[in-house]
What we know:
By secondary structure, this protein is an alpha+beta fold. It has three domains: about 30-245, Immunoglobulin-like; about 265-430, C8orf32 fold (Roll), CATH 3.10.620.30; about 440-640, Jelly Rolls (Sandwich). Strands 24-25-23-22-28-32-31-30 form an eight-stranded mixed sheet. A seven-stranded mixed sheet has the order 5-4-8-2-1-10-12, with no helix packed on it. The chain has a five-stranded antiparallel sheet with strand order 19-18-17-20-21, with helices on one face. Helix 6 runs antiparallel to helix 8 (about 340-355). The longest helix is centred in the last third of the chain and has 16 residues, at about 620-635. The protein is flat and about 95 Å long.
Amino acid sequence: MRRSNVIFFFLAFSLNLSLLAQDIKFGKYSQSELELTKVDFEPEAASVVLEEISNNHFMGTIQHSTIHRRIKILKESGKDVGNVSITFYAGDGIQNVTKLNAQTINIENGIEKITKLSKDDFFEVDLDDNYKEVRFTFKDVKVGSIIEYSYLKTDKSITFLDSWVFHNPIPTMKSTYTIEVPSFLNYNFLAQGEKTQSCKYQTNYPGTYSWTVSNLSAIKNEPMMSNYQDFIEKIDFQLAGYAFSNSATYGGGGSGFKETYTTWQELTESISEFDLFVHYLNPNAGEKSQILTFVPKGETEIQKAKDVYNFVTEKYSYNGEYSPFPSKNLRAMLESRTGQRADINLTLLAYLRQNGLTAYPLLISSKGNGRSRLVDTPFLDQFNQLIIYAKIDDKEYFLDATNSERPFGYLPLSHHVSYGYIMKEKDSGLIPVQLPHRSGIVQMVNTKLDENNHLVSESTVRYTDYDALSKMNGSSIDEVDTLKKYILGPTPENLLDFAVTEKTDPRKQLEAKFKHSFADFDPETTFISPFAYTRWSENPFQSEVRTFPVDFLYTFTDNYTSIIEIPKGYTVDDYPQDANISIPGGTALFTYQVTQWEGQIKVTASISLKYPLISPSVYPDLKYFMEILTTKLKEPVVLKKTANP
């Protein structure tokens, strides 16, 4: 839902604000725009944003945004951008879109042909949750067309201004956001993206700020980056203060400037007073007695904490919804035992505290929420999830009680973030979210001729921590066929047997043991792949360029060992060469070694990822690294028959 407006009392101002002069004029095109046929930084682009501008000012306490966007069609497949939708929040008349203007220009036989849209070409459509959309389609769009449109959006909700995103689904040559802030308002700025953060946004006009970002690649799906929203170039605003006037005050002395939350502690105190929040932090006598009907069996703090966590995850059901704030009070949660993430985690907090354990709410911005970093000011709009921080036996734990399959101290992968906002009685603020783990794969393979003279491979594969959780994918250990599919693929070939076991203490582990035969075994010359099942079968990175970082989700260390027993009468004809490569900076390491002695050949490989997020600036090195790694792990050992045994 749209955030509610905060009630302000402002001085009466009669302001006549002027924006910076626009560089882009409707219907006025440069020769370079008319002649453009290809985007230098993205040659395959089918269309491109030539320029877009958002000019913003305030009339009283209403934000006025004049938005102008100009696009060129470069290929037949780029004509779809001629279908435009503008979404706005219409509830209580908070936002409105007016003054629509749109046209297409084509150059035919050296003459400009302009096709304008009329009022009847714009359609307003009702969406869910009080949102609306203005839709329109440009006419006479063809390869070489320039289309442009402009409109005015007004907004009465000025606590959080709408973000301006410089990126677009198509490449953008130039994007500018300008805002003129009146003296009776003060905003905190939150810039995201290297280019936006490096902008010199101060202007020669007091209270006027401007960001211009150029040459942005299109937003597109890339391997191992499902949360590109966290890395797009954008700018956000949160109200930091406002002028007020209270004419009823005796002597007229009630005017001044009111700052909103200036410290994290002030923000915590304000949130803690919310009706739905207060009893989770300080339950009443009835709520305490109901909580204390559950008695943890553990004797140590960590045993008690795990008992409480297991009780909450088993007895309380997550409805799939989330918010940084609860949707119901503690009494309602104790009765219904179902709720959204904040409801369940705050219930966990209440149980932990009533059992003498230290716990606090922790607000985070999960992956995909559009925040690659947090700003260290009380910018509440940064957060979208609530989890729990606990300090047990002088160790820190980060908890989320929405999934009974997730052990104590593990978080969803989308919650693996760098920092969170802890709400304490004192010293509230940002703290690092540290999730120590030993994720990885250990594989041990033994290949030999069995008693029937069949070449058979026996494998043990152990997945630890987040690799174990990922492979189980929410399945029970009893669902053997499902786990077999997750581990070996949907149609494993020549599988002789399969068994799987699970451990949860001291850490999560999933272990699979299986056999498979080499049906294509050639008695004269045979090729044996040392490792039939690895983290990647192919290099996931095929593109030559990369727009956003690569996100491996978590760090890991894989160790593979394969021992091939050389049958009598056979010799090793060929085997892979050793390798030792890394990404500059030591982000990832790969070693591969072959050792041969009488009757056996041993192949070992190790992959170590030290940082889960890899910058697009080193993407070429990563692509090469992964090509070597995936190729090497598939290289066979070649055995050749020399004589009858």
